[in-house]
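Hey all, quick one. A colleague (J.T.) asked me to put the 1,6-di-O-phosphono-alpha-D-glucopyranose job into the tracker so the inputs and the structure tokens live in one place instead of scattered across chat threads. No bug as far as I know, just bookkeeping. Sequence used:
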Amino acid sequence: MLTIRTPSHPFKDQRPGTSGLRKKVAVFQQPGYLENFVQALFDVLPDAAGQTLVLGGDGRFYNRVATQIILRMAAAKGYARVLVGQGGILSTPAVSAVIRHHGASGGIVLSASHNPGGPEGDFGIKYNIANGGPAPEKITEAMFERSKTVSEIHSIDSPDIALDALGTIYLGRMEVTVIDPVAIYLDLMQKLFDFNGMRKLFASGFRLRFDAMHAVGGPYAKAVLEGALGAPPGTVVNAIPLEDFGGLHPDPNPVNAEDLVHHLFAVDAPDMGAASDGDADRNMVVGRRFVVSPSDSLAVLLAHAHRVPGYRGGISGVARSMPTSQAVDKVAKAMGIPCYETPTGWKFFGNLMDAGLVSLCGEESYGTGSNHIREKDGLWAVLFWLNLIAVTGESVEALVRAMWKEHGRCVYSRHDYEGISLSSADALMRDLRASLHSLPGKSLAGCSIDFADDFSYTDPVDGSVSERQGVRIVLKDGSRAVFRLSGTGTDGATLRLYLERFEPDISRHDLPAEEALAPLAALAEAAANVRLQTGMDCPSVTT
Ligand code: G16
């Protein structure tokens, strides 16, 4: 056992956010920084004797170094076994699947998700619990408190171990098994979806372009789509995970996955396009000359879930994060099943799924998933779409339009104001919150406001309350402007403004979103002085 005295509190003020801790690589490279996080985690977890830990990451820069550090510390903590992905690689959904499959006590994910990578980019770490989902606040808060007083790092004195060959080796008394990162995940997908039907779809000439964005989704998509489903070689592009994601931003939205959208709008466009993010838990689906919004995607999956083998038994309920559009609420209402509205952050879905209240869930931030694991799952969503196309024979666009026709369209857009100062962001939210009581009944920029609040959530399972989760300004028909600050950025603050307008009239479903949402954008500006407060004339990213 090696005990290293650590400089006091390198983890100071680094409260883990909704998805663990994300910082610039250089911050993580400071002596003792990563170790402090891991020691704080291990100190608040119970005794590890006899327990299994899962460990893997999205392959970004520093993944391998961090993996070796954590393995030595896990041996000192006394874990019986660590299951580590080959090459230190495991996607976030795969970590969740492996934890559940092996009955592990938890897992550590090394990823900054969709944030850029490389030596100048971001790194991140988070802990998932035995249900396979992100640690709840009571654990992350306890870690944060513990991190303030950690003064010793417990590790073992041992050289790096080989991570590239499958097999089992010992680190001290701890067994380390290097596992195939894909096998358990592929097996799970085969239980949920009609692989024969999808094989036939590809055999009939259906063309998919899956952009793995040089991130961890590549090996999974290759094995599932080109391997098990017989899609033609080349279906998965940018399939090799790179430490810097090829210098690109592995965030699947029409702005960052512009190349994919370009291909789907070309004359010889494939039938469907899809992309996943850095750690492969997010997804974007694109039809031929038709971009699907994540909120609409969730609604379509719910409407057709009975057609997919894994969900034929019925959907107990559905959940969406508050800023996600209300399209899924309308489908759920028509189906007579409950729809839960939670704060942003996947962990809120975990409790609902563990209690059997919810089978499907999703977020506007390109995350969709189900109770098969406790993380969102990019490739799973793409397979769900492929399965629906195989069963219905309909195109991506036709499936979305049919949903709009039946339930009305929730026209939706998110405006991001990135890299603003923390003080400006705080001032904007503070002023907005202070004005909330005066808004109901008022007409602003031609919109009559029905109600306005700061979203607060009481977990129906454990009764825990999460307050100040985003400001909503809502009109009578449910159209709304929502404001919240991002919890995942690493440069200053990012203000997210979500605009949603309900449009029941089918003849207006093709109105460009910008035009349809202009009145709500004006309402948001009038309510929050966005331009003045952010110092920006327009959002840096609109999706
Ligand atoms: C994380 C969470 C998601 C959440 C998103 C919000 O995504 O896992 O549940 O929707 O953050 O991001 P922001 O706070 O920036 O709006 P990921 O994919 O980064 O892990």
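Adding what we noticed when we looked at it: Residues 18-19, 113-114, 281-282, 321, 344-346, 363, 365, 367, 486-488, 496 surround 1,6-di-O-phosphono-alpha-D-glucopyranose (CB under 6 Å). The CA atoms of residues 456 and 467 lie 4 Å apart.
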